[in-house]
Design brief:
CATH topology: TIM Barrel
Number of strands: 14
CATH class: Alpha Beta
Strand content: 15-25%
Number of helices: 10
Number of domains: 1
Order of helices and strands: EHHEEHEHEEHHEEEHEHEHEEEH
Structural class: alpha/beta
């Protein structure tokens, strides 16, 4: 019998060799280079967090076969892959293409893509992060229409037909991380709507009933998408409606609340936000649970903003709240998103670690089964 809930964990696909990533991680092992150099920055700082599985190559299908089994055995049955496109080429695609898709057991865990394009500066490079102008740009997240169409054709042809691609009502789910980058690249809200409508039509031509476009919503904010500094701002709710998006979730608690406090306090605020979004939007909101936040592994100097007391037990209580939220909305997909499967440098991961062992994964299994 299939699992009742779709428990989806974001995957940060940086733990393998990508030739273009050597500008950030010159050793050729991806961001493991940063993880392995991590250490505490103050007394009581719960760092370093090291993977019990070691710095494995996640573009190796045998490694991903092991990870898929561990995820499925503990109730995680969907991976949401961060997916990037810069300078006319995909970036960090090896974890998905060479790891997950070549693993013999990828029928045990479904997957879908989150187009994660954002402007890239030196944040990923620990040698320079925080030491140079954070606005220094390596790659622009925004992509014009020709690049957008290349991206859409790639995902329609390469990923949507895969039997393990996650669908809602038969519609492939495609998540968008940064609406600002999407709209700016396409030249405005109306242009972005036409591009998304074209994407839907191409998806239907490929034999699917439609496309389910999901947005990882931020806090209550307005976006200036006029292209003019100080120009008129558009409310996020209006933007979601104008673009015709299908569903909402979150990517990280840090995007909408103060995370520099105890996890139980953060979670109480998150549940209020879930309820507000379910009330204020006419499209489904899928509850999101973040495990933690501490991005100090990426920096030499201490950066404030560290989640405290985010034990597996506290995380399990958050999962119970997400389960109850899903149960109360039986007409929408039973989808719950989690940050994340492997965000070691942001200290929000399900994979077993040196501090809690398999604790976070066991919490998922207690709530959702495996």
């Amino acid at each position: 019998m299939s699992q009742k809930y779709d428990v989806a964990a974001y995957v940060w696909p940086s733990y393998h060799h990508d030739p273009r990533a050597r500008i950030f991680w010159p050793q050729g092992i991806g961001e493991w280079e940063t993880v392995l150099k991590n250490g505490p920055k103050f007394e009581g700082h719960e760092q370093p967090r090291l993977p019990l599985w070691g710095p494995v190559n996640e573009a190796d299908p045998y490694v991903m076969q092991m990870q898929i089994d561990a995820a499925a055995d503990h109730g995680v049955n969907v991976f949401i892959y961060d997916w990037y496109w810069y300078d006319g080429l995909p970036f960090l695609e090896g974890c998905l293409d060479d790891g997950y898709l070549k693993a013999k057991n990828n029928d045990r865990v479904k997957f879908y893509l989150m187009w994660a394009n954002h402007d890239v500066n030196t944040t990923w490079d620990k040698r320079n992060a925080g030491k140079v102008d954070p606005k220094s740009l390596i790659w622009r997240g925004a992509q014009d229409l020709s690049q957008f169409k290349a991206i859409a054709r790639r995902v329609i042809e390469r990923y949507f037909p895969h039997p393990s691609y996650y669908r809602i009502g038969g519609k492939p789910c495609f998540s968008i991380y940064d609406l600002r980058a999407l709209v700016e690249g396409l030249g405005g809200v109306e242009e972005a709507r036409r591009a998304l409508d074209w994407f839907r039509e191409e998806t239907r031509k490929a034999g699917f009933p439609d496309l389910d476009i999901q947005y990882t919503i931020r806090g209550k904010m307005s976006l200036n998408l006029s292209g003019v500094d100080g120009g008129p701002a558009m409310d996020q709710k209006d933007l979601v409606a104008k673009l015709g998006l299908d569903s909402l979730t979150h990517y990280q608690y840090v995007h909408f609340t103060d995370v520099d406090r105890d996890y139980a306090e953060i979670q109480a605020d998150a549940e209020k936000v879930w309820a507000e979004l379910a009330r204020d939007y006419s499209i489904p909101y899928y509850p999101h649970v973040s495990i933690g936040w501490d991005n100090n592994p990426r920096y030499e100097m201490f950066r404030p903003g560290v989640v405290k007391k985010n034990t597996p037990e506290a995380f399990g209580k958050a999962l119970l709240a997400a389960k109850a939220f899903a149960d109360a909305r039986p007409k929408q997909a039973p989808l719950i998103t989690i940050n994340s499967w492997n965000e070691w440098t942001e200290t929000s991961y399900l994979q077993p670690c040196s501090l809690f062992g398999y604790g976070y994964l066991e919490a998922v299994k207690r709530v959702f089964g495996g």
